Amino acid sequence: MIERALLARLCRGPASGEELAREAGITRAAVWKRVQALREAGVEIDARPGRGYALARPLELLDARAMAAAMSPEARRQLSRLTVLFDTDSTNAVALREPAPARGCAVWLAERQQAGRGRRGRAWVSPLAAHVYLSVSRRFEGGIAALQGLSLAVGVVACEALRALGFADVGLKWPNDLLARGRKLGGILVEVGGEAAGPVRAVVGLGVNVQMPSAMGRAIEQSWVDLAGLAGGSVSRPMVASALLDALLPALAQFEREGPAPFLARWPRLDCLAGRPVRVACAGEVHEGTALGLSDDGALRLEVGGVERRFHAGEASLRAA
């Protein structure tokens, strides 16, 4: 894959068009076209006389072996396989096309998604080598009902993992968003298939903004934030991805054993909306009130006109009122 080879070379430092052509075994004109394609995919590449091509800011490509080595022994015991794709439609779509492993977790990460998606089919902007796009496929016993609250549990684990890396502002917005400073940082998409009472397969998709290319950021309509902005400088994507997987894989095994209760108990200290006025759109109706946190089954508790109402994940969207 020539684009990946060119990008990997530029990650090591500037290179002339002649040097890139020689290493890739293509013409300089072909190098220019491939560089243009990388730019269109979101990679910021400068070209200067006497210096050649250079990345506008440092990038690291994902390496499956190095990432697995960075995980704890407990997380590696849960790992069936880890695959890094350079370009794909979406990691969730890839995971859904493959059978779930007989044991443990199959993990897919991508440098770029052409059709990244969030909840309710919304598009997820997925520029090349900019963010973390990952999906985990795992079998669960106990039927589909046993997976109630899984997306909430994943949110808690992801939020705690990012806080452990020093991003103290990260919190949760029910049902599936990671927020920081009032703006969207990431999202979770869980897709489930199987029998009502038998084994089921869940694909857990997680996207986290790490370093948004400025041009693509301007095209996003909703308010967003990335880890680089929170840190005030570059952030290692492989480090973030490894930390998320290191926390998530053992947590999925715990969820199968214990259900959502241990995770929901940790939700309140991460909750971005508790005590705040919110608006919930559900089944064509809009309800405004004060968020009261979550119930034991993961429903959003909302005080509306002095009466508590409950909304379950998958039924409502939430915005600050």
UniProtKB/TrEMBL annotation:
Biological-process GO terms, alphabetical: regulation of DNA-templated transcription
Gene3D superfamilies (UniProt xref): 2.30.30.100, Bira Bifunctional Protein, Domain 2, Winged helix-like DNA-binding domain superfamily/Winged helix DNA-binding domain
Keywords associated with the record: ATP-binding, Biotin, DNA-binding, Ligase, Nucleotide-binding, Repressor, Transcription, Transcription regulation
Binding-site list for biotin: S90, T91, N92, Q113, R117, G118, R119, K184
The UniProt record lists the keyword Zinc: no
Superkingdom, taxonomy of origin: Bacteria
Reaction equations catalysed: biotin + L-lysyl-[protein] + ATP = N(6)-biotinyl-L-lysyl-[protein] + AMP + diphosphate + H(+)
EC identifiers of the protein: 6.3.4.15
GO MF annotation list: ATP binding; biotin--[biotin carboxyl-carrier protein] ligase activity; DNA binding
DNA-binding region: 17-36
Domain BPL/LPL catalytic, residue spans: 74-256
Similarity field: Belongs to the biotin--protein ligase family.
Cross-referenced HAMAP family: Bifunct_BirA
Purpose: Acts both as a biotin--[acetyl-CoA-carboxylase] ligase and a biotin-operon repressor. In the presence of ATP, BirA activates biotin to form the BirA-biotinyl-5'-adenylate (BirA-bio-5'-AMP or holoBirA) complex. HoloBirA can either transfer the biotinyl moiety to the biotin carboxyl carrier protein (BCCP) subunit of acetyl-CoA carboxylase, or bind to the biotin operator site and inhibit transcription of the operon.
Name this protein carries in UniProt: Bifunctional ligase/repressor BirA
Species lineage: Bacteria, Pseudomonadati, Pseudomonadota, Gammaproteobacteria, Lysobacterales
